[in-house]
Structures are given as C-alpha cells and as structure tokens.
Write a structure and sequence with these properties.
CATH class of the largest domain: Mainly Alpha
Oligomer: single chain
Low-confidence stretches: 1-20, 25-31
Number of domains: 2
CATH superfamily of the largest domain: GntR ligand-binding domain-like
Number of helices: 9
CATH architecture of the largest domain: Up-down Bundle
Distance between the termini: 34 Å
Structural class: alpha+beta
Strand content: 5-15%
Radius of gyration: 19 Å
Helix content: 40-55%
CATH topology of the largest domain: Four Helix Bundle (Hemerythrin (Met), subunit A)
Shape: globular
Order of helices and strands: EEHHHEEHHHHEHHE
Amino acid sequence: MIVRELLGKRKGDVVQPVTRFYSARSVVPVSRMSTVDLIVIELRKAILAGDLSVGAPLGEVEIAAQLGVSRGPLREGAQRLVQEGLLVSIPGRGLRVRRIGADEVPDLYEARLGLEAHAARRLAQRPNATETAELEACLARLVAVSAGEDPAPIGDADLEFHRQLVDLVGSRRLSARISTLLAETRIASFSAKSGYQVRRSVSPTYRELIDAIVAGDGDAAAFALSRQFEAASARLTGEDDSADTVEVPILDEPLSFSRIESIE
C-alpha cells in the first residue's frame, strides 16, 4: 500500500488532494555523506511518507536498481533502519516496514510523556523568551495548517512542535531519542485500521503547555502533555472516535525511487 496521491478529508467534507508527508530531518553533515548515508535518508523518507507502507516487504532488487546502488550498501542502510525501529527483520521473510499496532500505542505515548514532560520541566526551570518564541512559532504553524484540508502539514506541524520542545533542552541524546519516538508515532498513525488521520482542531493543551513553561510551572506543563497524549492515544487505539479529523485513505501504487549519486 502506497500513500502517493494522498486524499484527505474532514468527516462529512468533500475529498481534497493533499501533499506528501514530511521526512525526518537528516543529522548527517552533507560533506560526510556516504552511499549508505544517502540510502538511509531515501528509505527513511519513503517510510515516514508512507510510500513504503507498514508491513510491506523491502524489495531489495527493485529498490537497489532504482537507486542505482548494489544490494550490499542497500542492506547496510536497511540494517541501520532496523536499529532505528523503522524496519524489522523476519526470519525467512526478509526485511519489512515495521507495523505499530493499537496495543503498542499506549506504551509509545508513555515513553513520549516521560521524555517530553522532563523537557518541559527543564524549560520551565529557566523560562527564556527566545525559546518560548520558538515554541510559539511552532504552535502558530500548527494553527495555520489546521485550517486547511491537507492532513500532511497538520501532522508534520504537530510532530515538529514536540521535536522543538525537546531540542530546546540542548541534549543531543534526548533529541536523538525524540526523533525515534516521533518516527514511531508516524508509523503508528499509518498502522491504524482507519488509515492515517490527524486531529482537525488544535488542542488547547498546546497553549496551556507554553503558558506553564513561561510561568515556570513544570508540573502544569507536564500535566498539559499528559492530557494531550491521553487523547491522542485514545484516538489512535479507536477508544475515542469523537474528535473531528482529517483522514487519508491508503492507496496501492508502485513506488519509484530516484537514483542517488554517491559522494564517496
């Protein structure tokens, strides 16, 4: 199943065409990229855009030919994504895109809460106008795109807000960990039986979170996150379908990669 020409709709609305999803930012300096680095970037982009759908096998021969690389570097790159949790290796069946079912969603958000609540408390200990402005900008972006009918930028803006929250702490390890958890959140969304969907309205907990950080109230900030994640988990697991959402059906279309140029 491929999400290429995505169709998003608000419940009861006319279907509208939407754009591709975001891909995780690369943390590999361009000057140091190898063929394997480039392969990892392309595969990660395809997975997080839904172009390599959850549960789908990794067609090594076809993908290697499209990328213009041998199967050796492709396998090495794929193994990196196994370590990141985006691919899984199944004995006798090869590599497949990971599927994160509803039973895993509560644990995923519990892990995110532990990390992001810590980040919020750290920021609340040292309220900073510059850092607050960056969160405000992320929230403004989320509010702006939520007025549209395209679920891709809504989902992207949501993940970027949470990425920025953790990045502002200034810990390389925490930033790496949140990148993994946000990627898993995207995969969990793609794994939902109803297809990819995002909340149409912006939860008031975003504003409550920022206001709590500005006020130096770490507990209030953590509580805002807790309520936000409880609602998101309930929506993804199907326990609560009352939220107004923008939805994306998953379409079956052939995947095509562009050839990459090695810098080695």
